[in-house]
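user: Please review this fold.
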Amino acid sequence: MSAGDSRPARGGRPDGDRQGGRSGGGRSGGGRPGSGAAGRPPGGRSGDGRPGARRPAGNAENASRARKHPDDPALPDDIAPADLDPAVRRDLRTLDKANADAVARHLVMVGRLADEDPVLALSHARAARNRASRIGVVRETVGIAAYHAGEWQEALSELRAARRILGGSALLPLIADCERGLGRPERALEIARGDDARSLTADDRLEMLIVEAGARLDLGEADKAVVTLQAADLAPGQTGPEATRLFYAYAEALLAAGRRDDAMTWFMNAASADVDDLTDAELRLVELADSPPGLPTGPEVSSAVAVVSPEVSAAVAVVSPEVSAAVPVVSPEVSAAVAVVSPEVSAAVPVASAAVPGVPSTVPTLAEEFDAVLLDLDGTVFAGHRPIPGAVEAVAELPHETVRYVTNNASRRPAQVAAHLCELGFSATPDQVVTSAQAGARLVAQQVPAGSTVLVVGTDGLAAEIGEVGLVPTRSADDAPRAVIQGHSPQTDWAALSEAALAIAAGAVWVATNVDTTLPSERGLLVGNGSMVAAVASATKASPLIAGKPALPLLRDAIASVGAANPLVVGDRLDTDIEGANAVGVDSLLVLTGVSSLRDVLAAPAARRPTHIGVTLGALTAPAALSAVGGRHRWTVTGRGSSLTIAADSDDADPLSAIPALVAQVWARGMSAQEAADLTVTSANSAVADLLGGLGVG
């Protein structure tokens, strides 16, 4: 049984028939979202500490519940309590034996009927609930059964009740999708982007991305659905239920976005991944091949993405449940050898402005689509002692109160950073600056008692931040510090690193303000704090807590400081700025003026893919569509391997949108790091050819 068969079309109508009764990419065996070992339901439960897990019902109550209710569905004689998964049976031991056996038999029937008769399966689930309403796994089973029967309100109520009893976040994808079933996609998006969703495991996060993409399609936002799914691991060649469903959902989103050829590619990938014949991907390919371009095929757009598809049998009646394989996460290092874009190259590249030919001035700019802009500094706004070309002008067009300067560099205090920005021509005040030194000091304060001594490896500014949070800075391990904080300083030497190693070896908590291995400057890439941290890690065999990007503390502090609900993170590094934005669940703009190159972007893993890409900060003041990787760009990429050509589909195709178009189409194909390293892209459009040459791929 799969959610893909029962997810709602407009008006809440189940649309399972469109896939011939097969799953829309559903999990097999015990692959219910969040299933743990042996298919045990999730929820962070631990022995007797689970809320509600050991609240015994009275004997009279158990005896009453053990008797057959008049509305109970019949139980076949061949159904035995022992057929139930042992892990689930253990959850029933608070009931007396007769009642537990009745509940177990109904739960077994839920699993048996899940696919062939979801309505009758729900009746058995309700019968189990009538006898054991305080058992979390029973409420969860009722919620999942109601979900598959298309009873969205009942499913939502039961899943919420199960989550209250079991704890944890693993049921959130189902809860969010029930909101879609009730015609509330906006609420589904709120859940998908909420704080609780950020703690999801890799498997459950994939489920939530598919639900989020479906909600985007419900709202008619096909391009955003495409971008949402690009945060997952779309590497072709994977097989199994997770890859099948992801590829299928991505194909549907691409089709809804008008990208028919790309959609056919991903339906092929889905068909190849579908070793268990869970989807109709092959049929969809035939439909697309047989229908002329421009004609709709398959389901309506609002129901294009197959949503989360848990198997009730994993929760209840599977004798030998399978455990879903974790979604692979690939995190190749971004090359540190990328040269900083020189002023000459930047000056030669077309810079976007709000006044783009052929685009009405009423079209909102990228920055106007967000309530705050969180700007990285080194490599994004400036390089050492000079601003990045065009940066001063671009930032000047942003509302002052919506701008925050967010830096991993812990060597300066906010007032010093603001003064440096003003010297370079920017308008900045100390309260607009959020540094990793501040985030690091707060992180240390959360780890040790107030008044503790902390060894500081870094500048006096970092030591001052430690003092600001009620801790006592020192430079010597002989003072028995409770913690070590390490941030960038040009004066850090062997002696300072050795003091840190001694303190960490003695048991001190270790916090690094950031782990950037390099630091952009006007001369090129210099040694960054991450390289110094690596030296201490090598000596101590320890790993630090991290405050700066891509870890969450710094960006969360920045978002809180501006009070933003929909911020845009802007930076030049995939491994810090963009990965951090994805980790905190917000959109991002990568500018190609610092560390990460276009080649890096083309081979970027899912966790490091930006939603927007621009050559410079001028992208902020241009229409958002020009930089959106998932946008409908008027460019087509042809060729294969490391030799590609990009051509305009129309005379009015904007050269600035050629870069995100190239990135989107290469991501759809999949490109290895080696292919990206050898890549050459040509174009008959002279402006685009110059742009590609300036970015090192022409």
In short: Residues 1-66, 298-361 have pLDDT under 50 and may be disordered.
